[in-house]
Structure formats: C-alpha cells, structure tokens
C-alpha cells in the first residue's frame, strides 16, 4: 500500500510526459554524427548560426530605419558586419531544452541532438543599444569626414589659386592637375584609411 501511495505521489509531483518548452524557444537540429559530443557541437553551431541570422535581420531593420540619406550604404554595411562579427553569441543564447536521439545502424550508432534555444531578453536589449550607438558613432565620424573633405577642398582651391596668382599663370595646368589628384585622393584616404 505504501509503495502505491509513493508511486502515485511521485507521478503527480513530476509528470513523465514531454518537456514543456518556452513559447519563445526555437528548435534547432544538428547534423547526424558518430559521437554524442560531435552531435551536440553540431547542434550548438547551428544554434549560434540561428542567433547570428536573427541579429543580422535586426541590424538590417535598424539600418533601414536609422541610416540618413547622406551616409553611404557601403560604410553602413561594413559597420554592421564588423558589429555582427564582434557579437558575443554565447551571451545571447539560452539553452531551454535538449533532446538526444540515438540510432543503431549496421556500422554502429549515430547520434543527433536537437536543442531548443531562446535569446536572453537582457542581452537583446543591450545588443540593440550597442548597435544604435555604433550607428550613431558612424554617423558622427562620417559627418566629420565629410566636413573635413569640404574644408580641405576649400583650402586646396584657395592654395592653388594663390600659387597660380603667384606664378603669374605659368603653372596653371600643373596646379590644376595637382589639385585634382590631391582632391580626389583625399576622400579615398579618409574613408578607406
């Protein structure tokens, strides 16, 4: 009688049914591997790739909303790619549940792991803040560079005009060619350097 009572109470306290997974969790299945460790590593890589894809979509959306018309798309994309490469995926990922499947074959056993993963809400908010800050910094730096180019071009035109006047027109073609070369190289130097 005591055995039945203990069995029933344990069954009520800890149900043996399937695990309940959070509503925001996503199932990520790894490749079939020959060892349990390799199967888990494969599932973990897929989960990290899933999180990176989520962040890439968020970054593209934030870029579409935030990018001013004067900011070149190439610079914005490069800043977002750099930010995504520096993203700490391990901190963003939360393992909710895990299922390991073992299959028996004539050559041996194979293993496949399915992970249910969710993103940490705190790290999502922090990541979005960091992305917005990175885009603001890029806007400021680009505005400063554009202002520097405009000021340098103005000074270059004034210097060329002064040197042309000083040489009494003997070096006009050479000075204009030199001005075009320096004026054209300045944006390349500032934005690629």
Question: Can you put this structure into words, describing what you see?
Answer:
This protein is an alpha+beta fold. The chain is 66% helix and 15% strand. It is built from 6 helices and 3 strands; from the N terminus they run H-E-H-H-H-E-E-H-H. The protein has helices at 2-13, 36-66, 73-85, 89-92, 121-166, 172-192, and strands spanning 26-29, 93-105, 108-119. The protein has a 3-stranded antiparallel sheet. Helix 2 (36-66) packs antiparallel against helix 3 (73-85) and helix 2 (36-66) packs across helix 5 (121-166). The protein is elongated. The model is unreliable at 10-22 (pLDDT under 50).
In terms of topology, how is this protein built?
Layout: H1 2-13, E1 26-29, H2 36-66, H3 73-85, H4 89-92, E2 93-105, E3 108-119, H5 121-166, H6 172-192
Antiparallel strand pairs: 1-3, 2-3
Nutshell version of this structure?
With 193 residues, the protein is an alpha+beta fold.
- Determine the number of helices (DSSP H or I, runs of at least 4 residues): 6
Rg result: 30 Å
What pattern of helices and strands is seen along the backbone? HEHHHEEHH
Q: Can you list the strand order of the major beta sheet?
A: 1-3-2
For the secondary structure, the number of strands is 3
Mean pLDDT: 77
Oligomer: single chain
How big a fraction of the residues is strand?
15-25%
